[in-house]
From TrEMBL:
GO CC, any one term: protein-DNA complex
Name used for this protein in its record: Two-component system response regulator
Response regulatory domain residues: 8-122
GO biological process, one term: regulation of DNA-templated transcription
Length: 228
């Protein structure tokens, strides 16, 4: 991972030895870590600490992981919750995801897998925190507002940067013109939606995407970036 300074993680488990093991590992990786031994303490701590990621055990006395997940998500700040369970039960996974969990891991798990899950959630929900993230041939440096494609820095306007970043971060998903306008130009945009076509055409030129194989058009639906 390129940079994790300033990224806050909260660990919640009623087993102190698990908390200690995970805390030492994550602190060594550079994360800012806080721990809680029960669900209610986790909810209270979350309000002040506002973690980017919560690693939350399901089975705890009192307020269990499911209820803690629901309460933390209700606080209102952006947070990714990875739930831990001792049993691989589909019903439990569905319940956790329905209450707002973003990912699920079954105990026992490797620390490397946990790191990979954390990084995946950060890339999805907090890409700017990572400084620079890589997706296929693209490198996005949100701090420098710079995108590198096939090892070449693209000359992009601020709007082109935001549009291409949005499409790369959502690669494989067809994005409608309305969704693009709402996200890149904001909801108060009063122009015509053909402005999206103009910017897509410009991006294709800068990406040398003459055959429209990178940025694909789905007539009546929108656009999709496909990565190798």
């Amino acid at each position: 991972m390129s940079a994790v300074k300033g990224i806050r993680i909260m660990l919640v488990d009623d087993e102190p030895h698990i908390l200690q093991f995970l805390e030492i590992g994550l602190v060594n990786e550079g994360y800012e870590v806080i721990t809680a031994l029960d669900g209610m303490s986790a909810v209270t701590l979350a309000q002040d600490f506002q973690p980017h990621v919560v690693i939350l055990d399901v089975m705890m006395p009192g307020v269990d992981g499911f209820e803690a997940c629901r309460m933390i998500k209700k606080i209102g700040f952006n947070v990714a919750i990875i739930m831990l369970t001792a049993k691989d039960d589909v019903e439990d996974r569905v319940k956790g995801l329905t209450l707002g969990a973003d990912d699920y891991m079954v105990k026992p798990f490797s620390f490397d897998e946990l790191l990979a899950r954390i990084q995946a959630r950060l890339r999805n929900q907090f890409p700017s925190l990572l400084g620079e993230v890589t997706y296929g041939p693209f490198q996005i440096d949100d701090r420098r507002k710079e995108i590198i494609y096939e090892q070449k820095v693209l000359e992009l306007s601020p709007t082109e940067y935001e549009l291409l970043k949005f499409m790369v971060l959502n690669h494989g998903i067809v994005l409608s013109k309305t969704k693009i306008l709402d996200t890149v130009w904001s909801y108060d945009f009063g122009g015509e939606d053909n402005i999206v076509e103009v910017y897509i055409r410009s991006l294709r030129e800068k990406l040398n995407d003459k055959g429209h194989q990178l940025i694909r058009t789905f007539r009546g639906s929108g656009y999709r970036i496909d990565l190798p």
